[in-house]
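Re: that chain you flagged

S.,

Sorry for the slow reply, it's been a week of failed gels. I finally had a moment to sit down with the sequence you sent. For the record, here it is as I used it:
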Amino acid sequence: NQPSPADSVLHALSFLDVHFMEAVTARQVSERLALTAQQLNSQFREDAGISLSDYIALQHLSYAKLLLCTEMPIAEIAAETLFPSASSMSAAFKKFWGITPMEYRRLKLSR
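Prediction finished late last night. Pasting the structure tokens below so you have them in one place:
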């Protein structure tokens, strides 16, 4: 039985919360819910205000923010938060928050 469009977003959020530390893609979530990626992303954007892919990235970046308050090297944080490299994590971090992970770390550590 296929979930309603509104329920599909709740199911997606629940699935992502459970599989937070796995490299899950928007396509995998849509397949899990028996929807096309376009259907799920459209409904997700309507209900959450962002794309499913951006939501997934923000989940990992939020975890990275926590790790940046430690002395863990940036490259290790990138690997821990499932980014393919420190530079890709840095680009995503800057896209969403307007600063690099190093700038964020300096701000946090200077307080």
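What I noticed first: Helices lie at 5-18, 26-32, 37-48, 52-67, 74-80, 86-97, 101-109.

Talk soon,
D.
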